[in-house]
Design brief:
The structure holds two protein chains of two kinds.
Chain A: H1 2-14, E1 46-53, H2 60-80, E2 89-96, H3 101-111, E3 117-121, H4 124-137, E4 141-143, H5 163-176, E5 186-191, H6 194-210, E6 216-220, H7 228-236, E7 241-245, H8 248-260, E8 266-269, H9 284-290, E9 291-295, H10 306-318, H11 326-348, H12 353-362, E10 365-366, E11 375-376, E12 389-394, E13 402-409
Parallel strand pairs in A: 1-2, 1-3, 3-4, 5-6, 5-7, 7-8, 8-9
Antiparallel strand pairs in A: 9-12, 10-11, 12-13
Helix pairs in contact in A: 2-10, 2-11, 3-4, 5-6, 11-12
Chain B: H1 11-15, H2 25-44, H3 47-72, H4 80-97, H5 102-120, H6 123-126, H7 129-149, H8 151-154, E1 160-161, E2 168-169, E3 172-173, E4 179-180, E5 183-184, H9 187-210, H10 213-223, H11 225-230, H12 235-261, E6 263-264, H13 271-284, H14 289-308, H15 313-318, E7 319-320, E8 329-330, H16 331-349, H17 353-366
Parallel strand pairs in B: 7-8
Antiparallel strand pairs in B: 1-6, 2-3, 4-5
The chains are: A alpha/beta, B mainly alpha.
Chain lengths: ~425, ~375
């Protein structure tokens, strides 16, 4: 017992005195327009941004091109613009989440003291797991998913038209122009999770506005090994359009099963359903006949959009090994959005966490050079995501296997969709 | 070294956890070292490191539970992740949503885990080996469905937050960081102490369980359940009991996991987590309590050690960050490979796990200078 008591004394003598990392948070704010004071993630010269993304595991196929896009953009800023505000170089701190929430939370806590903000947090479950902490720490992060829940979050910097809007525009386009009609049977095949529910919510909204009803709804868990049950269910109901909310692996399995069972409705997929690798797959003829992809902006390589020209040039210069990829583009655009926030923060002379939030709220809109729609910005309640989407069809001769059908289709009722504030 | 020091002279001697320091120096040394580490670690390591170590402690509690079931009773289960989920969601609902006090929701989570385990347990009476594995595997998927769709309790696919869960125990507030003797500690420091105190309590309970009558019955069932029944072991009671206790441990681990993460969502209690637990007890040592703890620290802590040292020497050449850097695989992939390799190597060369290494070292010193 004496030993224990002595130990307790010893520990209390040297214990507790460990200085808190957060002390650095209280760094003096720079004056308006002056040089920003150093603080977490900023040493007076270099701005560090966090990236928590899967570089291992089954989602690494998305994480790696995304991060490559993040990085190429900053290489361009560092080299050609001499950094943010012409002075401050940007560096990425990349950590592997393995698409696993506990790992991501651990990594977040490891690097949060070393970064100004997060350039990328990949995955709805991971953003969900970190949202409370982001708010408590008042750190801004870019969520790499188009969930509509993000729109009103004080500490998130989303981009692009959310999944609901994609579904609304996609369904409206098909019914009014794309070969469908109000008498056709529309069904959904979706993941059994929030991403799937987002797509479903959009379809429900559009059908309600069009005065139609959903013919059938089939769900599946992520990584579903066999789609026989779902496909026969949809086939049995005689579905003529199936709205698909999935990720590439499940897209492949579902459509392969449909082809095998001779089920050939019109498929329409949300932006994360596609991957360039489909071009070389034996499924491609089926896709060309039956698949439509809904996303944003111009066709890949269409340089009439100023942002696309810049994107291609930067990719050629700073990521020459990167094959054309929709996820690379998304990563590139993420950095572009973060860049606009950082420029505003540097202009205000404040790169502290509060300074970033303030700078973000003061921006009126975030511009993507027409590669993605302009995002109306401001305080959380004023934010207004883009409401138009482009329709593509598979074409093996195109760089990412997709050919533009209609650019920027906006359903007349897309504006009516409300993004709740919780 | 005379034998009388280590020899038990009576039954009372046999069951004592600690004899005098002179007669049992090893246990005393280990105990003192553990207490020193317990008090010293949070004052030395930074918050991110403590978070990892707290997570190791949480896994240790769960692994002890699985070891009671698999290592001691021989009932192989892949359903452990389900029971961890039960605990996490119980804590999230009663702590986070209803605002129950810390001891109440921890106790309730443990109790619900115990009850659910007791309900599942009877399956083990009719099923053995591979068949039991399949049934318990089913639990994980059943659980995922439940977590995803029981929206009013689990928050559905969006998960549920524990940020409102009270974390005070008397004067100690673990959330804001405890204050002791005028010193304020951070959340991570406080949580480390909370978790590892619970590891100590649960480990002690498990040690006592395994070296008393139920423990001997469990081991008899593991070695051959038919013969155990013939010599009078009540199979129903002990198999169901093992399931119940194991699930209670898992649920406690789950509730602590929820508290540390502050958020739980359905994907976290997957087959992968279940396999991680099985790996922990294989690497740590089946049928040992200390092995469960060592295995948990090795599996969860080892990854972080490798990650933090990934820029050293040869390792740096092999590892890429996935973006532009040359290398063969990313750190996550390297970890997955090493982890798989560790399981294979342990099964081949040290089936009794890390715990056996410790026993061997101890025996070597105890019997020195003789090697037998």
């Amino acid at each position: 017992m004496t030993v224990l008591a002595a130990l307790a004394l010893l520990v209390s003598a040297c214990g507790g005195g460990r200085d808190d990392d957060d002390a650095s948070d209280k760094a003096d704010k720079g004056g308006n327009g002056g040089a920003p004071a150093s603080g977490p993630g900023f040493d007076g010269k270099t701005i560090k941004l966090g990236v928590i993304t899967p570089t291992s595991g089954r989602v690494a196929v998305i994480g790696e091109p995304l991060t490559n896009g993040n990085k190429a953009y900053w290489d361009y800023v560092n080299k050609e613009l001499k950094g943010v505000g012409g002075k401050y170089k940007v560096e990425l701190v990349i950590e592997d989440s393995a698409y696993d929430a506990p790992t991501a939370v651990q990594k977040y806590n490891q690097i949060k003291g070393d970064v100004v903000m997060f350039n990328q947090l990949l995955g709805t479950p991971i953003v969900n797991a970190l949202l409370e902490q982001l708010t408590a720490d008042n750190i801004v992060a870019q969520p790499a998913s188009l969930d509509s829940f993000w729109v009103r979050e004080q500490n998130l910097l989303p981009l692009g038209a959310p999944y609901q809007i994609q579904a609304i525009n996609g369904i409206d386009w098909w019914v009014t122009e794309g070969g469908g009609s109000e008498q056709k049977k529309i069904c959904t095949l979706r993941q059994d999770d929030p991403y799937g529910e987002a797509g479903q919510a959009g379809v429900d909204f559009a059908l309600d506005k069009l005065g139609m009803t959903l013919a059938d709804e089939a769900t599946f868990p992520v990584g579903n090994p066999d789609f026989t049950a779902q496909i026969t269910q949809l086939q049995g109901k005689g579905c003529e359009l199936v709205w698909l909310t999935s990720t590439p692996t499940d897209t492949g399995s579902a459509l392969a099963k449909a082809a095998e069972l001779g089920f050939a409705p019109q498929w329409m997929g949300q932006s994360p359903t596609w991957i360039g690798a489909f071009v070389d797959s034996p499924l491609m003829p089926y896709l060309q006949k039956n698949f439509i992809w809904v996303s944003e902006g111009p066709e890949y390589g269409d340089t009439s959009a100023p942002g696309m020209k810049e994107l291609l040039r930067i990719q050629d210069t700073y990521a020459p090994d990167q094959v054309p990829d929709i996820y690379y583009n998304f990563g590139y655009l993420e950095s572009k959005a973060v860049h606009q926030v950082l420029e505003a923060a540097v202009k205000n002379g404040d790169l502290s966490r509060e300074g970033i939030v303030e700078a973000m709220n003061s921006i009126d809109e975030i511009d993507f050079g027409d590669v993605f729609g302009t995002y109306g910005w401001g305080k959380p309640d004023d934010r207004d995501p883009p409401r138009a989407n482009s329709i593509f069809k598979p074409n093996p001769d195109k760089p990412i296997g997709l050919e533009l059908v209609v650019a920027e289709h906006e359903a007349p009722f897309a504006k009516d969709f409300e993004f709740s504030s919780d | 070294m005379s034998t009388s020091r280590t020899m038990a002279l009576s039954y009372l001697d046999e069951v004592k956890l600690l004899r005098s320091p002179r007669r049992d120096p090893w246990r005393w040394a280990a105990l003192v070292a553990a207490v020193v580490l317990y008090l010293w670690i949070p004052t030395y390591f930074g918050d991110p490191g403590l978070r990892i170590m707290a997570m190791c402690g949480i896994f240790a509690i769960g692994a002890i539970g699985l070891n009671l079931l698999t290592g001691y009773t021989g009932q192989i289960s892949l359903g452990h992740a389900f029971f961890v989920g039960v605990g996490a969601y119980t804590a999230a609902y009663f702590g986070g949503e209803r605002g129950w006090p810390l001891p109440a929701y921890l106790a309730l989570a443990t109790l619900i885990g115990f009850t659910v385990g007791a309900v599942i347990g009877p399956f083990a009476l009719r099923l053995r080996g591979n068949y039991l594995v399949v049934v318990t595997l089913g639990l994980v998927f059943l659980g995922e469905h439940l977590w995803n769709n029981w929206d009013s309790v689990t928050g559905g696919g969006n998960g549920i937050s524990l940020s409102q869960a009270p974390m005070t125990l008397g004067p100690l507030d673990f959330k804001e960081g405890i204050e002791l003797g005028g010193e304020a500690y951070t959340f991570e420091q406080s949580f480390f102490w909370l978790t590892w105190a619970l590891v100590a309590v649960t480990a002690l309970l498990a040690v006592n369980l395994t070296r008393s009558r139920p423990g001997r019955a469990m081991q008899a069932i593991r070695d051959r359940d038919l013969s155990a029944e013939v010599i009078g072991v009540n199979l129903a009671r002990y198999k169901v009991g093992a399931f119940a206790w194991s699930s209670a441990y898992a649920a406690l681990a789950g509730s602590l996991y929820g508290l540390l993460q502050q958020y739980v969502s359905p994907g976290e209690f997957s087959l992968f987590l279940a396999i991680n637990y099985v790996a922990m007890i294989i690497i740590g040592g089946l049928g040992t309590i200390v092995g469960s703890i060592l295995g948990a620290v090795f599996v969860w802590g080892g990854r972080s050690v490798i990650e933090q040292n990934s820029s050293i020497g040869l390792f740096d050449r092999l590892i890429t960050n996935g973006v532009g850097e040359p290398g063969w695989f990313t750190i996550g992939e390297a970890n997955a490979i090493l982890f798989g390799l560790a399981i294979v190597l342990f099964l081949l060369f040290e089936p009794r796990g890390l715990a056996a290494l410790w026993f061997r070292v101890k025996t070597w010193f105890l019997t020195w200078p003789f090697s037998y």
